[in-house]
Amino acid sequence: MKQILTELDIRDWLTPVSASSQTLAIQQLENGNILYMPKLSFSLLNEELPALSTRISNHKAKNISFNSQLDQLHGANHVDYDPIMIKSMMARFAKYAHALINHVLPSYSKALQIGRTSYRPIEIHGRKPKSYRKDDTRLHVDAFPASPNQGRRILRVFTNINPDGKGRVWRYGEAFQHVVDRFLPKIGNPWPGRSAVLKALGITKTYCTEYDYIMLNIHNKMKADMRYQRTAVQGEIDFAPGNTWIVQTDHVSHAALSGQFLLEQTFYLPVEAMQNPELSPLRVLEAAKDRKLTI
Ligand code: SIN
Ligand code: FE
What ranges do the domains of the chain cover? Predict the structure, then answer.
């Protein structure tokens, strides 16, 4: 199996990156690699240290999520914790993650759209998901039922902030083209008018294109297939505390097996802003179907 990590020697969120690292980074990322920065850590301030507890979660949502643009926080325990402290910690991470992308992938900057910041204080191993579709310990590519993205790339920055030396253990699977070859033939066409009905009923926040329909089906079928989960070509990575990694999770087959206390920032990127748009899931699927899928 090919080496999936591309290591970058970046130790500071706000320092510019050499042109040679930028050239390597965009090429490797778009080809399905994970950009791995083992020495890029995120330190909590003294007043933020109480955040390193499961009590910070309201235990209803899987993660604590923060919309830094609307200043909205979800999933936190508001009784025992000051939301201002949580927001300021997550806003600082969002700012650093954005600066990192601007430095490492400067050609994305103009088109980059900022998504949610997420804080994951609950141990993944042994957690009981509500359904297999929500089980991130199974290999999958990211696609979300309520949030169609109409072909935009999902670009994520992760940092393990575990204080007890515990790694974030991931599995990664086969290349996206292989995933498509295996699962696309099992997916039928959506029924006519499906997207308009989902939108009208409020099931999706935005219009669900055929691309979104296919990606969600691939996501669900990968997770449902236990034989595939066992037998697909795969490898394991242990991201130690103090590691940061950048990955296009709509493209890289991944699963999180164990770990606790992780920060994550999501960005979206229109396919046209890529150096090589042909490598996007949208273009790969359009090539396989021989038609446009963004309608
Ligand atoms: C996922 O994106 O499936 C989970 C990643 C993580 O929480 O480590
Ligand atoms: Fe995922």
Answer: 5-289
